[in-house]
Write a structure and sequence with these properties.
Blueprint lengths: L1 E7 L12 H11 L2 E6 L4 E6 L4 H16 L5 E5 H9 L11 E8 L5 H8 L7 E5 L3 E7 L20 E5 H11 L1
Antiparallel strand pairs: 1-3, 1-4, 2-3, 5-7, 5-8, 6-7
Length: 179
């Protein structure tokens, strides 16, 4: 049995793609996943499955959401071991400064990391920091000067549609829930 973390992109944001997590958990259980749990309303789902093929698991989750809720969503799927490795590989500055906002930018489809970094643009090192990881970017930026940051304008970039974002607290809480 493999434990998977599914991060759904764009659900329950700004009144669009509304999806009750309790309903999703029941639908995924009915589909055959075991011990399905969700965390907050932003599309964080933990499932247990016999299938070791991540792509197949992702497709079953997407098909369930489409069939039961008539929503097409992109998913980033990780095994619990992959998520642990990613959180443990974070740069030492990520999540440390309370005056800064810390995010994990997770790609929902394969994109060369160099392409992502170029699309984001030149950072302002005095008010923001970013470091690529495996399929993710660790991001930190000044809360006070957020409007001046390059990464703060990320939502206007086409690359934004190829990622889902979790803040530091959510990312680390999900690790605890996977344990």
């Amino acid at each position: 049995m493999t434990t998977y973390l599914a991060l759904l992109r764009g659900v329950n944001v700004g009144g669009k793609a509304m999806l009750k997590m309790a309903d999703l958990a029941q639908a995924l259980t009915d589909t055959g996943f075991e011990r399905v749990t969700t965390y907050i309303q932003s599309g964080n789902v933990i499932v247990h499955a016999d299938d070791k093929d991540k792509q197949a698991v992702a497709e079953v989750i997407k098909a369930c959401i489409k069939k039961d809720f008539d929503l097409s969503v992109e998913i980033a799927l990780f095994t619990s071991a992959e998520w642990r490795e990613m959180i443990e590989a974070a740069p030492s500055w990520w999540g440390k400064d309370a005056e800064w906002k810390h995010n994990l930018l997770v790609l929902t489809e394969p994109v060369p990391m160099k392409e992502v970094v170029v699309a984001i643009g030149d950072l302002k090192p005095d008010i923001e920091n970013m470091e690529p990881g495996t399929g993710v970017l660790y991001q930190s930026m000044s809360r006070k000067l957020f409007g001046r940051t390059t990464t703060g304008k990320l939502a206007a970039s086409p690359i934004y549609k190829k990622m889902t974002i979790r803040n530091y607290n959510t990312a680390t809480k999900l690790l605890k829930l996977l344990d």
